[in-house]
Structures are given as C-alpha cells and as structure tokens.
Amino acid sequence: MIVRDQNDTLKLLFSWRGTILPKVLPPLGLVMLISAIVGGIEYINLYRFPEIPLVGFTLIGVVLSIFLGFKNTACYDRWWEARKLWGSLIANARHFDRDCRILPQGRRERVIQHVIVFANVLRDRLRHQTVSPDVLHQTSGMSQQALTQLYQQANAPQYTLSLIQWELMLALKEGEISDIIYTQMNQHVTDLSLVQTGCDRIATTPLPFAYSVLLNRTVYFFCFLLPFSLGSVLGLATPLLVGILAYTFLGLDALSTEIEEPFGTQSNDLPLDSMVRTIEIELLSTLGKPTPPPIQAQDHNLL
Fold first, then answer.
1. Would you list the DSSP string of 246-298?
2. How remote is the C-alpha of 244 from its chain's centroid?
3. 184, 177 Cβ separation under 8 angstroms
4. Maximum Cα–Cα distance across the chain
5. How far apart are the C-alpha atoms of 172 and 183, rounded to whole Å?
6. Per-residue pLDDT tens for 45-95?
7. What share of the chain is helix, strand, coil (3-state, %, to 5)?
8. Tell me: the pLDDT tens digits for 179-219?
9. Hey, is 301 helix, strand or coil?
10. CB 96 within 8 A of CB 114
C-alpha cells in the first residue's frame, strides 16, 4: 500500500511510484503517437481520414464511463471489505489477549501463540506463499515439530483455530474457566473463522472474466479510434486531448483490475505484512517477550 502525504499537491502531481501510469504508459504512448500522426496529417492537409461522427464517441464514452464506474465500485468494495475483515482480525486478537488473562500463564501463552500463527498462515494462504518455519518459530514461539505438522495441513488457518478451541476445551474440562467464559472466548474463534471465510470468498471469486474482457476491449477500441474522430477538429492538439482522455479510461480500467485482488503485493494492495506485524507486536508485548520491529514503508510502499 502506498503511503504518501496527500496534502502536497505538487508531489501528487508528479508522483510515479504507486500510480497507475507505469502500467498504462505503453498503450497510452501508442495512442498519443497515432494521435500525433493523424493530427499532423490532417493539419497539413496531406490526407483526409474518413471522419467518425463525434456524437457516436460521445454516446460510447458516456456508456463506457458508467460501466467503468460500476467496475471500479465493485472492485473497491472488494478492497474495502478485505480491509474491514483484517481490521476485525486485529480486533479479535486484542479481545483474545484481554480474555485470556483468566487462563493459567502456560495455557494463555499457547493460545496467544496460536493467534499469532493464525494471522501469519492466513496471510500466506491469501498470498499463495509460505513463510519460513524458522521465522514463524522465532515470532510465535511454537516448536518446530508443531510448525511442521501445521504446514502439512490442507487448511492451516482452520487447523490453527482448532488448536485454540482445543486449549479452551481443556481449560473448561479442567475447571480453569466456567462454561460462560468458554462460550465468550469461543465466540472469538468463530469470529476469526468468519474472517477467513470472508477473505477466502474474495480471493477465490474475482469479477466475471467475460465482463472484464468485454470492458477492457471496449476501452482499448475507444481509445485507439478516438484520434480519427478528433484529428480533423483539433489538428496538432490531438495528442494532448486524446492522451488525457485515454489516460483516464485506461487508468480507471487498470486501477480497478489492480485492486480487484486486494491481498497481493502490488502497490495498492493491502499491507498484510504490516498488519500481521502489528498483531505480533501487541500480543508478544503483553506476554513480556521480545517484539519484532515495526515494518517500515520502503520507497513509500508498505507491504
């Protein structure tokens, strides 16, 4: 996720990292080149291209704007829902920390360890990666044998939640907590499971492929045909206006595609590493154990 001071208008105007411009620059440059050729030819009266009625482009542009707006809204809703789910995960980790204080110290540490592991393996599941067991061992304190068994599971996050629930069931069975306290703490396990379910739903259900392809093709056809409609009117100014219009349409299409998958490592995706580190720091500090340093943004990009 890009972290910048958005109050500095000049810096925002000339920003490069984290913007959509690097992705759309090749097709945008091609559109402007075509516009310059068409506009120049029209300006010196070397050749008159068949004029495409401008009213047709106006109607197409209005319809295209509506559908692009719909796609951007749908993709942003996915991004924002993912952020709310991870906010709920952080909140539930804090709830666990408070409620687990009633448990004996050894059992409390094991529950907190499992919560830290859950955040890590859920991030890895969503990003299709596997963090080094040594790193997770140092952070969570779980044994190498337990971590080896964890990585053999088809669904590591749910397996971790089952370990938390097992600890709570043993605490209830041994009389360390009452059934009321067990029900209250077990609700946090259910909430964490709902967080994973929501994240899995977003990660495994992108926007319909046919819809995305149709909109993408329409945007490119519109931008590449635009110079032939405006060339005879604007002449040498054709590349400027066509470039602005093409940047808007191509940029909106590319931006929506990028935030459609909010769990990746692109510039505008969610900073899952930073949120997992927040959970680790807060929970480990309550156990009186060494905490890892906060993750800092690199080149304004926070992972």
1. HHHHHHHHHHHHHHTSTTSSSTTS--HHHHHHHHHHHHHHHTT---PPPPPPB
2. 27
3. no
4. 93
5. 10
6. 777 766 677 777 778 888 888 888 888 899 999 999 999 999 999 999 999
7. 75, 0, 25
8. 899 899 999 999 999 999 999 999 998 888 888 888 888 88
9. strand
10. no
Any idea what DSSP says for residue 19?
S
Q: Token pair for residue 46?
A: 């070397």
Question: Tokens 């010196």 — which residue?
Answer: 44
Fill in the amino acid letter for 104: P
DSSP letter at 2 equals B
Question: Interior CA angle at 272 toward 267 and 273, to 5°?
Answer: 95
Determine phi and psi for 263, rounding to 5 degrees.
-100, 5
CA distances from 172 to 164, 178, 185, 188, 271 (A): 13, 6, 11, 16, 37
Q: Rounded CA gap, 47 and 61, in Å?
A: 27
Phi, psi dihedral angles at 149 (to 5 degrees): -65, -35
The answer to whether 268 and 255 are in contact (CB under 8 A) is: yes
CA–CA dist 275, 84 (Å, integer)? 12
Using CA atoms, how far apart are residues 65 and 218, in angstroms rounded to an integer? 11
**pTM (two decimals):** 0.87
Place of tokens 């952070």: 139
Spatial separation of the C-alpha atoms in residues 303 and 35, rounded to whole Å: 39
φ, ψ of residue 6 in degrees (nearest 5): -85, 0
The residue with tokens 């998958």 is 261
How many whole angstroms separate alpha carbon 110 and alpha carbon 93?
13
